[in-house]
Amino acid sequence: MQIAKHMKSFLLLITFVLSTSLFAQTGKEIIDRSIELSGGITNWKLLNTVAISGKVTLGVNDEYPIKIFQARPNLTKTSITIASKENIVEGYDGENGYAMNYATNKLERYPNYNAESFDTDFIDFESKGFSAQLLGKEKVGTKDCYKVELTKNVNKTIYFFDVKNYQLLKEIQKDETLIYGDYKKVGNLLFPYRIESSSSKKDSDYVILVQKIETNKVFPKNTFKF
């Protein structure tokens, strides 16, 4: 009886230690593991340009061809094709941002455009001033995920990583929620081939189905120019 009692106490202790160690791993280890299994930090840092082509669905049934070009450190351009005409939606050329003004149906320059970094925030997040906290587990659809909050000052983003393969499945930002899926390998890196965006406004919701991704392609010099 004493042996059984001590064994039960021992098992309870082990369970406590394991459950404690899960959260003691912190969000950093979850993020590091995700980066490692999606290609490794070195390969992500060697990535300098990305060209994405596919289809974007806006609203219920409005589907259009889409092209996205991105380059370090923060250059970007997105265009969609409507009635056989390619239309630039938005971009950043290194100095100014530009976006389509749908009220005037013209592309306009925005000097105070907030350019996003080429890398996601959780690449070298600590050196960028972010801290990570593992909040536990939560399902995304039918999949169990690690729920990690990345915080910098008042800015917070929550990431959900599949517990089995550490793939990023969901991202909750201040004004937008992104769902990632259908991961495929391009060279040494894993990319999501399905991206779904939703927001409280609903009028800016979209689904992108990627058809092709090219990495480290040399773009013409005027690719990002307004």
TrEMBL record:
Signal sequence, start to end: 1-24
Keywords: Signal
UniProt keyword Signal present: yes
Name of the protein in question: Histidine kinase
Organism per entry: Frigoriflavimonas asaccharolytica
